[in-house]
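Q: Structure for this?
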Amino acid sequence: MKYYVCLMVVFLFSVQIQAQKVAVFDSYSDLEKAVLSDENTTYVVNFWATWCLPCVKELPYFEQLNSANKNLKVVLISLDFKNQYETKLLPFLKENNIKSEVVLLTDKDYNTWLSVVDKDWSGSIPATLVISKRKKKFVEKMFSDYEELNQYVNSIIN
Amino acid sequence: MKKISVLLLFVAFIVTAAFTSIAPTPYKIGDVATDFKLKSVDGKMYSMSYYKKAKGFIVVFTCNHCPFAKKYEDRINDLAKNYKSQGYILLAINPNDPEVEPDDSYELMQQRAKEKGFVFPYLLDEGQKIYPQYGATKTPHVFLLDKNRVVKYIGAIDDNVDSAAEVKVKYLENAIAALENGKNPSPEMTKAIGCSIKSKK
């Protein structure tokens, strides 16, 4: 019975989240201030886009991480094109029932903000940034399964 | 004794680790880039050495499937047209493994080149031997070389993927202009988003 109640709560919660709007940021520094600035929170930030197949493939691992580990917060930063916000991004999130926080970043001054995320980022996606206790750890790759992602994140935050 | 075997194991591990990381170092500004001999969509093989009178080469890693690369297709074609007469040869290389990304097969490259009227050689990095040497990580990814294949600029074509009309800084064209004036480009490197290059692990 308890299980069903739990499930019900999760279900209701997810429906509520789904109804949320995706915040749009034109500048990475604004996004950082608004979404990634709480010093007591561990963030797992994934850079992705609906047009990036490897990104889409690894999204479920981030979703799983977000629901499995309550001590961290997954933020999915979409780099979709601005004019595909309503036609591609929102339908994708609904279809795939994405529950992690999603924001759209339309800052085209890549040459400036990519280096702010990590000085060695060449710009390929997927890419993942972990922010924990003011430390940042960045990787430019695709995780092949949930275990790999989970181990990677744990190795940084523990 | 136990200590020694642990030490030996450690040494063995270090040695193995040192010798298994065979990925070449990505090109930096000033490195001499390798030439290649790759097949284009017209069935012919192309090398930089073929262009005896070239003043420089624009090597663009690009492909069919990537939406980011697609946004630059027309701009790449215009660059090839505009700079050929000035002696700068644009060569596009598709670095993806078609088995991983079927949209980037040789046949579909031929089709895309025909549809878009590509005026430049559109080459397939068969066996994926070339892109790792350049250190290309994504599409599109541009390397500007001088006539001696010295790397002069690495990065993006310009600063606005969405709209050619709204570009503020034409990084690549500025870099070519710098070469023409006997100067080093500034910036020499820029960053941009792109699709990761697809290969089997």
